[in-house]
Task: structure prediction
Amino acid sequence: MKPNPLPAEQTHESREDAVREMFTRVAPHYELMNWLMTAGQDGRWRQEVIQRAELRPGSRLLDLGAGTGDLSRQALRQTPGCLTLAGDFTIPMLSKGQRKLAGSPITWAAMNALRLPFPDASFEAVVSGFLLRNVVDVQQALREQYRVLKPGGRMVALDTKIGKANLYSPFVRIYLRGVIPIMGRLVSGQGDAYRYLPASTQGFLRAEELVARMAAAGFRQIDYRVRMFGVIAIHWGRK
Ligand SMILES: C[S@@+](CC[C@H](N)C(=O)[O-])C[C@H]1O[C@@H](n2cnc3c(N)ncnc32)[C@H](O)[C@@H]1O
Result:
């Protein structure tokens, strides 16, 4: 296996540049690859994320690391009338979402999850899909989400995680390290970018560690559920 394309010794800025550059390259085939990689399951997880965000018509929702906006779209399906803001620092991902969801009442904005351009207590909910694994400082990302939430507001995060070893572990490893990069190369010509997925998953926090980080950021009523043989986790908490 090739080394992680985002080596740890890089500075935060150059690692962010590398993440942005990688998502710029995968943007054209992003949804198709997502669908293939998750065997079409990601739609169900997105429904669960939005359900756990406890939105009401008029709720202000921040979809952070929104990419092409699939969580925002799901939020509007489940709660028409919520006020959805999709933020990301990779413009080609946002532009693709904007074209795909033209006519949807979503506000699209460029922003860095580590320095959110909002005053304290701006949103009823902050959701993210596959963002936290990619940020260079998870604690700062959680602190920012906490800061911009209103008291009582919900944060919900969907991401990949390393599961405890179980019967499925060898198959999951083969899938992550072998099948996904090959699929990425065939579908998008970006095998390297899709080698980053297992590398970043293996470098990411265990589910219990993320719970501890959320608590350290100030969240309470924290819990999580795992999905897809323990490879996916949905975490939530309240301000
Ligand atoms: C795997 S994609 C997920 C997109 C979408 N949330 C979804 O569920 O399909 C991760 C996104 O996070 C964005 N991202 C990574 N680090 C970020 C940061 N520090 N600030 C804003 N966006 C970031 C990337 O640009 C990318 O669009």
